[in-house]
Amino acid sequence: MRKKQHQKWLAAAGLALLSILLLGISADAYAASVSGKQAGQFAPDKEKKKRRAASMSWVKLHQQFPSTFLLNGPRHSKRIALTFDDAPDPKYTPMILDILAQHDVCATFFIVGNRASHYPAIVKRIHNEGHIIGNHSYDHAVLSTLTLTNYQKQIWRTDAIITNLIGYSPHFIRPPYGELLPQQVKWSKQAGFSIVNWDVDSVDWKDNPSSALILKNIKKTLQPGSIILQHAGGGVGQNLYGTVNALPNLIRLLHGKGYELVTLPELLGQPAAR
Fold first, then answer.
1. Confidence of residue 237 (pLDDT cuts 50, 70, 90)
2. For 230, left (φ over 0), alpha (ψ -120 to 50), or beta?
């Protein structure tokens, strides 16, 4: 009799303990769930995290390679460099060149190698009108995902195309998306190149923005020595009329604030040719 009562007591105790444990787990799970939701409400979105990580990486690369990995020019002089990525494009690049010519402004164009092969006349026009040409990879690859050998192939292939068209090997490289690995920057330095990213992003690449929004984006971080990122070519279905329409107003805005618009060699004190 006592043995049966003891067994019943053990069973009841075990059931009670199991209930407590289950309740505890449920409570913890709920708390974790709530905590996660609350954290999510205040956490930056993925894009902000990505930008912050890229920004930190750029700072480290600039510290490691101060004369090779550049984000801006000297801050003591009111000079600004306009730069345009993803040229040549048969639709948008000529429009941008027309506006720059009307305002007597020279800029820097970063050329994609396979596009240059398709539209060599536009590359020659960029050069003939006094603009500076830089290397923007052969096919707009994410260079930070490539081996050093494949990175070199992207640069040399584009370099050969550009050199054949304009007669010089560009000194400046701009990696698509601004991403490079330290060993890639190190090799670029040894090969006689400089990496030039930017400190002002017009964000003209995202969601086909209006000219008003592009100007607003530029004014956020604009300061003496700034390098402004814009685009002179787009992907399939991309609309760059916002960039085209903003450009005359941007030039007038910068001149009105007393800025001199210069090319990257003028801003950075480095040669156009390697």
1. confident
2. beta
